Amino acid sequence: MGHQxxxxxxxxxxxxxxxxxxxxxxxxxxxxxxxxxxxxxxIADRTLQAAEAGLERAINDPGLRFTFYLLTQIVLAAREQxxxxxxxxxxxxxxxASSVFEFTAEVQRVIDDHLLTHGGSTDTSEMAQQAAGEAIxxxxxxxxxxxxxxxxxxxxxxxxxxxxxxxxxxxxxxxxGSFMTRFLNFYLSRVTAGQVGGRLGGxxxxxxFNDALRTHCLQSAKxxxxxxxxWYSKTxxxxxIDLDNTSGFMAVALRKLQAELRRQREGS
Length: 268
Known about the structure:
Elements: H1 15-30, H2 39-58, H3 62-77, H4 83-90, H5 100-117, H6 123-140, H7 152-160, H8 165-191, H9 193-196, H10 206-220, H11 225-238, H12 243-267
Helix pairs in contact: 1-2, 1-10, 2-8, 2-12, 3-4, 3-5, 3-6, 3-12, 5-6, 6-8, 8-10, 8-11
């Protein structure tokens, strides 16, 4: 299941082009000369190498595994008649008037509580937590407001739409795309520190870079789109999803992303 590359991945911009944008933005901010063109491929290559090694370490991150496991349980809860009771069992407290914002905040709180009692937060777990909140908000927010209101039933329906094989494929791709945006930015900031003056911020070009990076990572995460839906659907049907089999899934998913980074590095 999911061991072959599933379709071609469209990329609107080469990774080196995205790196060139942040390098240019950083040097403009620091008042220095633009990063030499010959340095861009090296920065791009070293960032992907570092991120690829980082993904290997992330495989064993408990916070990352729990966060994705929680996503599976949240969407499955939306299938239940009394989904608030099922969410309560997960630690998520909702009212009839809870909004997407409040729902997302509750999800983040549950992850925080889990991390506090399981070794504490890591850079990887924080990135996963932020990615989960972003994925939920982006995919449920627009659909949780209808002509009939924006209450519990609308929110439940929006989340339930993600509980199908296709819906969870989209949720998985959005989660990993958001996670990889933060992950690559984390390593890019460190690789470029000596050449563009450290962590970037405040540049007028930074917004464009962030948009380009986000698009690049979401498109790259297409490699796990079908795999997420297939694993979710088959695992839930055959034996149910738990933390153990989520850990196995995460190892395969991250290695697929590693392979994609390697492909981009070799092709850049």
